[in-house]
Amino acid sequence: MYACPEPAIRGMTHDMANRSATSPAGASPYAPADGYYDELFDAPGSPREFAVALAESLARLGPAGLAEAGRRRDAIFVQQGITFEATGPGEPSRDRPFPLDLVPRILPADEWATIKRGVAQRVRALNAFVEDVYHDRRIVEAGVVPWELIVTRPEFARPAHRVRAPGGVYCHVSGCDLVRDVDGTWKVLEDNVRTPSGISYVLENRIAMSRIVPELFAHYRVRPVADYPELLLGALRAVAPGGGDSPSIVVWTPGPANSAYFEHAFLARQMGVELVEASDLIVRDARVYMRTTEGLARVDVVYRRIDDAFIDPMEFRPDSLLGVPGLLRAYRAGTVAIANAVGTGVADDKAVYHYVPDMIRFYVGEEPILANVRTYLLSDPKVRAEVLDRLDELVVKPTSESGGKGVFIGPAAGPSELAAQAEAVRAAPERWIAQDLVGLSTVPTVTEDGVLSPRHVDLRPFAVYGDEIRIVPGGLTRVALPEGSMIVNSSQGGGSKDTWVLAAPGADEDGDGDAPQPLDAPTMPEMRQAGWREQAPQQQQQQEERG
Amino acid sequence: MLARIAHDVYWLGRHMARAEHTARMLDGLFHADLQGSPDDPASVTLSWDSLLAIMGSPRSEGEPARRDDVVNRLTLDAGSPVSILSCVAAAREGARTIRDTLPAEAWECVNTFHLGLAGRDLSDGLRTGPYSIYSYVKERTALFWGLTARTMQNDRARAFLEAGGRLEAADMVLRMLRAALPVRGGDDEGADAPRRDGNALALLQSIGGFHAFMRAVAAPPNAEPVARFLLYERDFPDSVAASVDALEAALVRADHDPPSSPPVLRLRRMTADLELRSRVTIEGAALTSLFRSVQQELDHVDTDVGERYFHGRGVGRQTVMA
Hints:
heterodimer; A: 547 residues; alpha+beta; 5-stranded mixed sheet; 31% helix; globular; B: 322 residues; mainly alpha; 67% helix
């Protein structure tokens, strides 16, 4: 059945598109928000070519159908325990089902190809930067990135000095946050090369979508995401010191109280490896072991989901109760691989971010495929003065925070907040950066009554670096659920969407010999059926009764 | 015990296992089929035609089978004897006949299962969320086996019930293996790293063995390791080897003189043969033909069972169109 591509998408003309987008009687057609790029509709009631079939399916479902599907979604998520703790102002915290919006975001194949190349290029440069920073510092000698900036980053890890990670891979898992500006161009908002999270939602969202609204998939060939755990496992195996057939790999979690514990357990289960906490690990003679019922067992690779600062109280924060004393000793001795490597945080610092395009030119020797958002480094007095002057138009971020913490949005701030932020910048300019405000693109999103309304989104594709860089098609689309909001973090009212990367049109027709063909099913024996009774005696039994 | 009762209880086990595996197969493929394309190694290349083939229905000429048709025929078509609805109706009819043999709780479980399925708006359910139907079938069959394990005297009737369930499970898993994983010959693939195989992953997930596989096997879920796991892994409850073991144990309990029982002797040969083969590496086409021969052997076991215990009843094969 895969042999014939669905003609519905590519064969659709624009006229048909316009007709098909009309909403059910009474409801007004979906209208994109003025001044922003809408990814599925190019005008009110007019879906982009690749979204026509989706718009039709959504119209068929209607607001009532969408609201009903939303209730089924919540029930399934609660049943599966896919929830997160939400605290509103003045409310007690409670578990809520993870807010998956039922309208998928669609990325056509050619658009995805660009994103994929751009992210791979960026991850290659970031990885090279981490290696360089802790070894030869070529980029400093070349005068591209100032050493002073690097060494003052809180995430710069002295214990990682001259430690070469196995295979030269430092950023085993990275997630770049991408946004789409008002003209539709993709830009990188920030990099995450420490312990980016969210991939479990990518996989769970897909499963949930195919269970809850299978009809939306009609006419689309969506590239699967389910093999991520296998990619990750392969990458972790590839960096195990000393090789060996079956290296011992663990996922290290801070514990069940961590907000991403669901994801830690998910990945361990999907990869079939142990999920460990600090108390399970012990270092003896510069080797890492875990405590098992059969005594101590060697650990070769630690996929850690815990920040540098906490991993080893002997080297980093001495008050860390979550760490394993001596871990860094084993790491330096090369007996254990840590993923991501120690000290990668220096590369996703928000001030270092400013230099990433130069890094790409320096290490990869190419022009960046994905642009940065324009960034202002506030340590320069001239730049600082300019920024303070137009603070009400800009976004100001602390350099080494993540998860949207401490982000200041100028246009949304009152006079007293503006003054306070200006004061904070003057007090410690090196701890802040300013950026142009990006008008995030929108995607239709189901509101409470089942009606579609534009909401702002970002995208976090996940790259896995083992023997090469592989990127899962799509990634996590986060959506700001309150109207007009651009804050997509799930801790602050954000939800997510399933992200569909469409299979390249024509891929089916080319028929290069490598493509697996639909299999011819072998002939099977017939299914046997029970056969004690014949029909005749049964009929007679019944007649007997009647008579 | 009466041969007729033994026959009915054996078939009750078969119908429950058939309903469960059909639901698992459809749920797995339905989910997997929504994604992917032929040039993507992670995609699933199992067609809806293959599903009909799994259920022993001859492949129709011309037009490939459409998803909705196949899902309908295998789920709620009362006229198709292999649909889940027909299986459950047959199980319920069988259980009603042998009510006195079953614990009341087990009978009620089958009865409410049937009522629950027949009372649903199935076609509407299929359109919006087949998942809820398949998970209902999985839950109810699991409840049935749990209740009999808890409340049913461990006598011959229970042995026949389990024998039927295990034979059907082994047969269904083999059917799925044969359709989903005709392991390609080693020659035309060259020495490249094995490609990720979406079919293998989908199959594992359908059967509910993904987690077990990842914990037991130090290899990615590609076609070959998955095939070996589902065939040989005696510690995974739904593998062919585990079902053959349990089937033999059940028939030993059921038989008045096991050492002279043809099905028991045949199963012992199969167990030894599987054990031997699991120790040598069999690849590609040889593995595929092994599936076929194991399936044929199980077919012979079924015939042996009918002849030894049911006086030849129920072994006459009826041609069934799925």
